[in-house]
Amino acid sequence: MRPVTRPLLSLVVPAFQARSTLGDCLDSLLAVEEGTEILVVDDGSEDDTAVLAEARLASRPGSRVLRTPNRGPGAARNLGLREARGRHVLFVDSDDLVLPEALQGALRLLDRDGTDLLGADYLQTFEGTGRTERVCRGFPLGLNGPEGAERMRRCLLFRHFKPLVWAHIFRRDRLLEEGVFFLEGRFFEDEEWMPRAILAARTLQAFPEPWYLYRRRGGSISAATSLRKVEDKVFVAREMGRRGDGVTPPWKDFFRYAEQRILKSARRDLATLPREAEGREVLEGEIARAWNPGRYWWGKAVQAVRARFI
């Protein structure tokens, strides 16, 4: 790997009350020996998350801890993105791990090709069982240039869309130039962010090995339903619809279907909450006005057809 004047990759870790998991996460990041900096964004933790991070990062020159009042993972990632010095950025959740050898291989590819977006499969392990499995995402491998980039983009949006921010490495300058920042103060901010990051990339590639271990836990930030989370889903759905108004087919179809898919999920979540919950009736009416089952089923069919011809 040729010498660089700045890190090739910034590893941005938003952390809130992460004392129990952050140490293992940072140990895996520190095992990636070349071309990286680590930025832990302490999102107003009241435990000693920041103290632990500073102690772990003391051995890595250039890596640092950023402290901010609690504003949620979207704001924490935005701060890390702005403060990063790397040519590329990978967002890492504080309770997950990276696989150092695979990530080092991805860095060599980035150093050679400088792609705007690099995607990969990932591993997931289930809390309490120890079972680990590889999640295959069906990416086209070995394709470069415009044809490969277009196939990769369609695969990401039409075949298996999931807002897996950590399963992709992004060219930082492209995100900044296109103003691709996360919604702040909202749940499900990654759902709205990920499609914009995919469309902002001019060059896209797939890496053949997973570099990320996602640890599935019952107490994750999105596990429990609340009225606030349903409100945020409706907000994100509206944002997806608004984004669809500003793009051309076939991406318009993706955003319109995404709007209805998220509204459908919001309806399902709302049905699990007590009927006497304050604000539920207003939110129910809001969803009813925006929900369009015909558009949902048409969009689902279009997605399925496009997925078959990637």
TrEMBL record:
It comes from the Bacteria. InterPro entries: Glyco_trans_2-like, Nucleotide-diphossugar_trans. Residues 10-135 form the Glycosyltransferase 2-like domain. Coiled coil: none annotated. One of its GO terms (molecular function) is hexosyltransferase activity. The keyword Disulfide bond does not apply. Keywords: Transferase. The keyword Kinase does not apply. This is Glycosyl transferase family 2. It comes from Aminomonas paucivorans DSM 12260.
